[in-house]
């Protein structure tokens, strides 16, 4: 076939090319908006179905959502959309259900009192979890109970029967009481903490199961024995967690009793409501009589507190009097640790039944009365026996005292002043001061900041250091600061004590909490002074290594709360503080955090050279931390942060200074390809900025600057490891050079890009999937062909040198078998060659003399173009022949028609060989026309007719050839 195309001749275009614009019209609805369908039901009511309708249709087919129709709602997004249309989205559905349940509960609990204090008000659930996590032990534990034996003798659930006769029920309960005498109690010893928790959980399950099996006495006995466990302080360090576990069981017991009484009182018809209420009152009295008969004080207190809410079923009950009575009863408990936790439980349950706080305050006063016994000799002897120091022992009081004080101060400062005055007069008041700082509102602490600082400075308590107290004060100040006029004096007074801490651990732990207060409320010089003090205290490497976490927290708080990050970066002590992180991994994390905050809080552009120098130093630390073992995600994150910093550096119209910065950055960040890509992009942008300043009229100075920019890019790109990124940047840099009339630099960039095609891998692995490079190469070379249209030929290289190079590299890239990539590029090259033959190109670059002006349709140039067209067509024909040999007839048919159309548009059909080639391609395609859409061939014929209609009035000979060609294809 090659012999029949030797007479190819590009024919001049004899008609004007016009663009067919799509018809436009005004619309008031988004095209993707769901349609609204109005239906009329049998009653004549109009029902609207659509995205904005309150009524939801059960028929999705009425909604013209193309994604839903195509995917039939099987993908997750479509399922969510379907749910939105049919019902409601999941979150809204959950919210509506919650509102509905809340409304129902509010109706059923209409008779209950509404108190301002509840368990949730103090977030007891969060407190109980923190207690369980904090107070643990590795010592062996013991438990005494009648309900965890392996072999029950007739008292288990299997032996329980339902007794409907009253006399039988009474007899059965008396038998139960005989079975549960104290002689049956078993002692489980040497339990680990996990075993102990499992045993407590078994007791919990046994209580619930006994209750549901109508074994009320057994449930009560379990509650009593659980309460007795709280008298065991043989393992002091575990006592707060022990309290939480046992009171959880008591809470369940109290709820079961209350719900039972409530059901008795309010169930049944309205006519028998009075009788039911009387029965519930009698049952309630019976429960409290049973509790009053408990011999030991501690279980009697705990069980009565657990069912405290049941007093509402008794007439003329005053919760205030009951709570005060229980408060006085607690005075009978000798161990201060056990007593304070009983008071904590009383306050917690009492808050659910009354809003009064007098009993809370009285409980705290009673605790202060016996507070001195904590330091008594008997307590110290027990601590020595258990090998528990005073610091650990005092911390056991923290959860209970904190909760009591928090309850007293909740939404009411009625007693807070009195409490503070009383605490001042108490010896060894450190633990209580700590509780006040943690429990009272930060506004209360801030209003008395100077007074509290002096109080903390004068406090001397064994087991509570001043650093702990000042740390707690710093946490409170971070939430709410004192008045502006008091802050300086307050800070000075506080640091008079803080600076006396000689232990680096105490100092840095305390300063960690104060850093946020200082950064947020004082000028930058105070932060700088704090950093200087920290550097002085922690100058030793060994000391720093122990406190990396605290130093990192200080840095993070300062960065988060400093409003002007640039002002912080230029402080003389900031970078020396960063150098305290001696380990590379820790320093890298700190530097990364700085750049993250800088990205988020900095100004749009940075011009300060000191800030830039500091950021360069920080970025260099990150760059140097990268090794061959660094994971790709870490490199990506660091590259992103440094690239963001580079983009924010802007010197305005001082372009040379800007370029100097990019040159320095290139030498600093040598391990990051992404940063190099950012530098090349920014330098190209800089060149275009210079072009914009002179409005395209380059002077000698601007031309030299632009060439320097292109040279920077040309030198930098080879350092990037990704071949695709290199090729893209070469293309972009060449286009920038072309716009700026730097022809030699543009040719060098384009040539370098084309030479890289042969080095491309055949496939890339992206997200675990292998993706062939064929589509990228085709897209890239097509883009290159579009650029080469306006690139003038170099006088040293000859006609269409870059195009010839492109045609050569196509053969060097190993396209996949049966790939249409080479043919697609050759077809696009044929389009480009035809444009080269035109008298005027369809587009130009201002200031660049393209080949249409350079050659002016010189016959020698046109001859070269025609020869290249012959070469390209030969390559396409070879591909068609290979497709036929591989029986890829569909591809062969499509490509035959594409080539035929180009011959008709571009070539002179008056040439016999060209005419015959076009006809042969048509006949080749008709052999397998059944493989294509039935409308495909008619559309081809219509396109040929359109070309004929355009040329019949301007080029008679060409029109005659086209007419003859149409007669042949219609005839055959």
Automatic annotation (TrEMBL):
One of its GO terms (biological process) is protein transport. It is found in: Endosome. It comes from the Eukaryota. InterPro entries: VPS35L. One of its GO terms (cellular component) is endosome. The keyword Cell membrane does not apply. Coiled coil: none annotated. Keywords: Endosome, Protein transport, Transport. Belongs to the VPS35L family. This is VPS35 endosomal protein-sorting factor-like. It comes from Glossina pallidipes (Tsetse fly). The lineage of its organism: Eukaryota, Metazoa, Ecdysozoa, Arthropoda, Hexapoda.
């Amino acid at each position: 076939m090659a012999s029949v195309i030797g007479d190819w001749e590009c024919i001049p275009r004899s008609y004007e090319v016009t663009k067919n614009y799509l018809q436009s019209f005004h619309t008031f609805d988004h095209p993707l908006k769901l349609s609204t369908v109005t239906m009329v039901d049998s009653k004549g009511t109009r029902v609207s179905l659509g995205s904005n309708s309150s009524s939801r249709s059960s028929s999705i087919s009425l909604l013209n959502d193309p994604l839903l129709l195509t995917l039939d709602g099987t993908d997750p997004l479509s399922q969510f959309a379907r749910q939105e249309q049919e019902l409601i989205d999941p979150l809204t559905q959950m919210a509506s259900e919650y509102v509905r349940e809340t409304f129902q509960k509010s109706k059923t609990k209409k008779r209950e009192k509404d108190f301002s204090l509840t368990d949730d008000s103090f977030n007891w659930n969060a407190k109980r979890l923190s207690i369980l996590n904090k107070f643990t032990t590795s010592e062996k534990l013991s438990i005494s109970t009648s309900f965890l034996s392996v072999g029950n003798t007739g008292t288990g659930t299997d032996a329980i029967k339902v007794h409907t006769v009253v006399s039988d029920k009474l007899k059965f309960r008396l038998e139960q009481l005989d079975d549960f005498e104290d002689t049956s109690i078993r002692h489980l010893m040497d339990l680990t903490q996990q075993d102990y928790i499992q045993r407590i959980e078994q007791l919990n399950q046994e209580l619930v199961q006994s209750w549901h099996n109508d074994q009320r006495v057994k449930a009560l006995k379990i509650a009593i024995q659980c309460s007795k466990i709280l008298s065991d302080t043989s393992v002091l360090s575990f006592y707060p967690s022990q309290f939480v576990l046992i009171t959880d069981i008591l809470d369940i017991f109290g709820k079961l009793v209350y719900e039972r009484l409530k059901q008795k009182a309010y169930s049944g018809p309205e006519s028998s409501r009075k009788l039911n209420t009387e029965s519930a009152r009698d049952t309630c009295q019976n429960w409290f009589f049973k509790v009053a008969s408990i011999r030991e004080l501690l279980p009697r207190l705990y069980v009565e507190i657990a069912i405290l809410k049941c007093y509402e079923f008794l007439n003329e009950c005053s919760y205030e009097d009951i709570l005060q009575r229980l408060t006085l009863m607690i005075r009978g408990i000798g161990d201060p640790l056990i007593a304070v936790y009983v008071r904590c439980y009383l306050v917690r349950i009492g808050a659910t039944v009354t809003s009064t706080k007098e009993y809370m305050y009285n409980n705290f006063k009673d605790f202060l009365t016996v507070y001195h016994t904590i330091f008594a000799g008997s307590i110290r002897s027990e601590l020595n026996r258990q090998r528990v120091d005073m610091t650990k022992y005092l911390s056991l009081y923290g959860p209970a005292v904190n909760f009591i004080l928090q309850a007293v101060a909740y939404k009411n400062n009625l007693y807070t002043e009195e409490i503070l005055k009383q605490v001042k007069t108490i010896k060894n008041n450190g633990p209580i001061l700590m509780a006040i700082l943690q429990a009272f509102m930060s506004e209360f602490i801030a209003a008395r900041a100077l007074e509290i600082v002096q109080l903390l400075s004068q406090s001397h308590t064994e087991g509570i250091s001043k650093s702990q107290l000042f740390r707690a004060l710093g946490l409170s100040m971070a939430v709410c600061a004192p008045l502006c006029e008091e802050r300086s004096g307050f800070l000075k007074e506080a640091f008079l004590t803080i600076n006396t801490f000689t232990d680096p651990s105490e100092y840095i732990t305390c300063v960690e909490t104060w850093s946020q207060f200082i950064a947020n409320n004082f000028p930058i010089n105070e932060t700088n002074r704090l950093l200087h003090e920290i550097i002085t205290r922690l100058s030793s490497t060994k000391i720093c290594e122990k406190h990396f976490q605290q130093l990192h927290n200080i840095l993070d708080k300062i960065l988060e709360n400093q409003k002007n990050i640039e002002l912080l970066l230029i402080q003389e002590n900031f970078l020396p503080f960063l150098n305290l992180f001696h380990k590379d991994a820790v320093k890298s994390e700190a530097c990364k955090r700085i750049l993250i905050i800088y990205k988020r809080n900095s100004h749009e552009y940075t011009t300060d050279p000191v800030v830039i120098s500091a950021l360069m130093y920080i970025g260099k630390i990150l760059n140097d931390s990268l090794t061959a073992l660094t994971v790709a995600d870490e490199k990506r994150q660091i590259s992103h942060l440094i690239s963001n910093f580079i983009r924010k550096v802007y010197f305005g119209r001082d372009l040379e200074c800007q370029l100097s910065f990019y040159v320095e950055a290139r030498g600093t960040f040598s391990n990051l390809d992404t940063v190099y890509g950012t530098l090349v992009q920014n330098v190209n942008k800089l060149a275009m900025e210079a072009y914009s300043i002179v409005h395209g009229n380059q002077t000698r100075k601007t031309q030299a600057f632009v060439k320097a920019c292109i040279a920077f890019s040309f030198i930098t790109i080879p350092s990037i490891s990704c071949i695709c990124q290199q090729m893209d940047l070469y293309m972009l840099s060449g286009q920038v050079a072309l716009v700026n009339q730097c022809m030699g630099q543009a040719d060098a960039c384009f040539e370098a890009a084309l030479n890289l095609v042969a080095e491309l891998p055949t496939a890339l692995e992206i997200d675990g999937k292998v993706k062939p490079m064929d589509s990228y190469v085709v897209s890239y070379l097509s883009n290159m062909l579009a650029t080469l249209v306006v690139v003038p030929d170099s006088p040293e290289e000859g006609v269409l040198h870059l195009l010839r190079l492109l045609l050569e590299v196509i053969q060097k890239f190993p396209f996949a078998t049966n790939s249409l990539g080479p043919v697609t590029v050759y077809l696009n090259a044929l389009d480009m060659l035809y444009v080269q033959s035109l008298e005027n190109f369809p587009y130009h670059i201002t200031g660049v003399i393209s080949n249409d002006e350079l050659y002016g349709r010189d016959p020698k140039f046109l001859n070269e173009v025609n020869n290249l067209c012959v070469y390209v067509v030969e390559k396409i024909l070879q591909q068609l022949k290979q497709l036929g040999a591989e029986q890829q007839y569909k591809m062969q048919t499509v490509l035959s028609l594409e080539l035929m159309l180009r011959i008709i548009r571009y070539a002179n059909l008056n040439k016999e060989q060209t005419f015959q080639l076009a006809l042969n391609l048509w006949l080749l395609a008709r052999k397998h026309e059944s493989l294509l859409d039935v409308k495909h061939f008619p559309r081809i014929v219509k396109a040929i007719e359109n070309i004929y209609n355009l040329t019949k009035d301007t080029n008679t000979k060409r029109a005659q050839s086209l007419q003859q060609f149409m007669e042949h294809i219609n005839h055959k």
